[in-house]
Automatic annotation (TrEMBL):
InterPro entries: AAA+_ATPase, P-loop_NTPase, Signal_recog_particl_SRP54_hlx, SR_rcpt_FtsY, SRP/SRP_N, SRP54_GTPase_dom, SRP54_N_sf. Keywords: Cell membrane, Cytoplasm, GTP-binding, Hydrolase, Membrane, Nucleotide-binding, Receptor. Gene3D superfamilies: P-loop containing nucleotide triphosphate hydrolases, Signal recognition particle SRP54, nucleotide-binding domain. Belongs to the GTP-binding SRP family. Pfam families: SRP54, SRP54_N. This is Putative Signal recognition particle protein. PANTHER family: SIGNAL RECOGNITION PARTICLE RECEPTOR SUBUNIT ALPHA (PTHR43134:SF1). It is found in: Cell membrane. SUPFAM superfamilies: Domain of the SRP/SRP receptor G-proteins, P-loop containing nucleoside triphosphate hydrolases. GO terms for molecular function: GTP binding; GTPase activity; signal recognition particle binding. Residues 276-289 form the SRP54-type proteins GTP-binding domain. The keyword GTP-binding applies. NCBIfam families: ftsY (TIGR00064).
Length: 305
């Protein structure tokens, strides 16, 4: 049982000892809201979860024979699932299979964003490994020309995976690198282009302007933001700002296996207005990446015994 679940269990134990009435239901939901905020759920996301739960609970007929535990737990789970779910999903392998089935020859272009230290470059390598194992051919665009060692880092991954890496001069135009990689893929009939981009220690106007230009030039099919679950509310703020200023289609959340950071997934999805979590990073090896399953995620955090 993870720490998030343990906290929920303690709340449930308290719930069992309470009488059933509207006042106690509201008090219990207020306690749950505080619990969420203390577990890296942003205050706005926590309030929305409680708002939805309250509508579900108070819409039911409460009698002295009601089971307080069941009365609260079901609606809370449903509300959390609503927040962390999206109207669409991003499954890169399935998208490539669909393109192949339709006979589409234009390469799939994925643009990756994220500040320094989120695991963006490793995530790109994991995606590259995933698609090549499914017999699709990829090229990586080393479009981080800002940091001296960045291109060497992504090229090292590309070499290990036996994938072509398109580079540019240090301090050069990253948009040109992205453009060249797409041209390379198109000319050789490759299936997918994975574009690495520069990060910074924090989001600033230079970074945003650079990402906006790369996006205009590369015209990606999908733009994925990579965040670190351990960053908590910082990850939420990054997601919100990148989505508003550059535009993203989904996220990759790394270190979500650190159970005390489950709240980050809720906050990130809510802050990007329901943009899906495409994948979660669960380790450092190339195979350590999973499709995000909202239902499985909710069942895991509500594993309260």
């Amino acid at each position: 049982m993870n720490s998030f679940s343990k906290g929920l269990r303690n709340l449930v134990i308290k719930v069992k000892t309470k009488e059933i009435d509207e006042i106690n239901v509201k008090e219990t939901l207020k306690e749950f809201e505080i619990f969420l905020i203390r577990n890296n759920v942003s205050s706005v996301a926590a309030r929305e979860i409680i708002k939805r739960t309250k509508v579900k609970v108070l819409g039911k007929r409460i009698t002295r024979f009601s089971n307080m535990e069941k009365l609260i737990e079901g609606p809370i789970k449903d509300s959390v699932l609503e927040i962390v779910s999206s109207d669409y999903e991003i499954d890169i392998v399935e998208i490539l299979k669909s393109k192949k089935k339709k006979g589409e020859i234009k390469p799939l272009v994925i643009l990756f964003l994220g500040i320094n230290g989120t695991g963006k470059t490793t995530s790109i390598a994991k995606i590259a490994n995933m698609v090549t194992k499914e017999k699709f051919r990829a090229v990586i665009a080393a479009a981080d020309t800002f940091r001296a060692a960045a291109q060497e880092q992504i090229k090292e991954h590309a070499d290990k995976l036996r994938i072509k890496c398109i580079e540019g001069p240090y301090g050069g135009d990253p948009s040109a690198v992205a453009y060249d990689a797409i041209a390379h893929a198109t000319a050789r009939g490759l299936n997918i282009v994975l574009i690495d981009t520069a990060g910074r220690m924090a989001i600033n106007n230079d970074l945003i302007g650079e990402m906006q230009k790369i996006k205009r030039v590369s015209n990606p099919d999908y733009t994925l933001l990579v965040v670190d679950a351990l960053a908590g509310n910082d990850a939420t703020n990054q997601a919100k700002e990148f989505d508003e200023k550059v535009g993203i289609d989904g996220t990759i959340i790394n270190k979500l296996d650190a159970d005390e950071r489950s709240g980050t997934a809720l906050s990130v999805t809510f802050s990007t207005k329901g943009k899906p979590i495409a994948y979660v990073g669960i380790g450092q090896k190339y195979k350590d990446i999973d499709k995000f399953d909202p239902k499985k995620f909710v069942e895991t955090i509500f594993d309260i015994g």
